[in-house]
Amino acid sequence: MSWAKSLIKLSTYEVEVLQKRLAEIGDRRRQAEMRLAMLFAQGEAEAAQADPSTSGDLLRFLDALKGRKQQIQCEIEIIMAEEAGARDALAQAFEEQKKYEQIAEQARLMELKVQAKVEAAAMDELGLRKAGGGR
What we know:
Layout: H1 2-48, H2 55-133
Helix pairs in contact: 1-2
């Protein structure tokens, strides 16, 4: 039965590692989304404060800003794909952990059945001795 406890302990550790990894990926995604939101706000602020005499400068700024936004959007998409993979790995690890727990429970129940049979046999033998000794 110690083998079952070891498997459960290992699978629990794997689940914890994967949960931590998923949380770290989620943090990276949220940070990238925040950077993207800041770029949008920066572009709106610049456009609102634009001086008509410097419209060329504003267009160049907005064009560069567009490139940075696209770069961060690509980064977010990559992180989201990584996040989906981490979620799948975590779901699989949970399934394995559950299987190990079920196997351990089945082994425990089988052990209880064997113990009950041994005790019943001992009681039957004791009953037979008493019955045989009383004659």
